[in-house]
């Protein structure tokens, strides 16, 4: 069944401003023009919603007290109870978003996901709860920093957000009501127009994320990078995986992010060999990607010593 009920997902931590923006949105006839709207609140903050101020009588409010309440059966029942047109979710910052993503009813689909945070505490939340911060940043389309002080360190905040996503817009909302948008240039640390795109050891994590997000711009590019080999007995003798282990936020999320590499002839390289590879990327279907992905057609291969920091990071 195709998703036909849009879900507006508001994420963030306590006192980040989620409740306030939901209240403002529902009072605005441009957003609330009569659709039957279900608001799911997953936490109780300092502010409380005031439904009596909403325009119309088309809004239904439900509370989810425990993360275990976020299950498909429960959400489906709540949706049918109110015969809704759309859903607004104020999600608990301490709950993993995978719980929600994995339990959405089949006819619900995320239409917009935004992260709201207190600008003054954003960096401390990131330092103390990095894994939860990454969880909320990964798929969001916009980060709204509320109560922005005049001396805010935009460079530091920009670096935190861009270490996870290059797609999210960043907005600063000041106490006097004016809004500023992040306009810090964020160039890639390598030259995609060079005859051979050199990926430095320190830049592999950013390279792989950019490759994953905008794969087609790498199609036909010649790359050179250092990686560790992984052999798969199901692959032909001229094909292997090579890449780096990448840590996004903490040791628990370290994962191998390789490219499928095809040689002109069988290769004797073994799993855990370090090599420097040069080759041309072609975006094409391969069974290891379960669809299309970047395949490196290797033109040169040389033994290499491991990088000083074997696990690639964004810092």
Fold and architecture overview:
By secondary structure, this protein is α/β, with parallel strands linked by helices. The strands form two sheets. An eight-stranded mixed β-sheet has the order 3-2-4-1-5-6-7-8, with helices on both faces. It has a five-stranded mixed barrel with strand order 10-11-12-14-13. The chain folds into two domains: 177 residues, Rossmann fold (3-Layer(aba) Sandwich); 107 residues, OB fold (Dihydrolipoamide Acetyltransferase, E2P) (Beta Barrel), CATH 2.40.50. The protein is built from seven helices and 14 strands. α4 crosses α5. The longest helix has 11 residues.
SS summary, helix count: 7
The third-level CATH topology of the largest domain is Rossmann fold
Range of strand content: 25-35%
What is the domain tally?
2
**Low-pLDDT segments:** none
CATH C-level of the largest domain: Alpha Beta
Give a quick account of the main beta sheet: strands, pairing sense, barrel closure: 8 strands, mixed
CATH architecture of the largest domain: 3-Layer(aba) Sandwich
Termini separation: 42 Å
CATH superfamily label of the largest domain: P-loop containing nucleotide triphosphate hydrolases
Biggest sheet, spatial arrangement of strands: 3-2-4-1-5-6-7-8
Question: What's the alpha carbon Rg, rounded to whole Å?
Answer: 23 Å
Mean pLDDT, nearest integer? 93
Shape: elongated
Structural class, from helix and strand content? alpha/beta
User: Helicity, in percent?
Assistant: 10-25%
Topology, number of strands: 14
- What quaternary form is this? single chain
Give the ordered list of helices and strands.
Answer: EHEEHEHEHHEHEEEHEEEEE
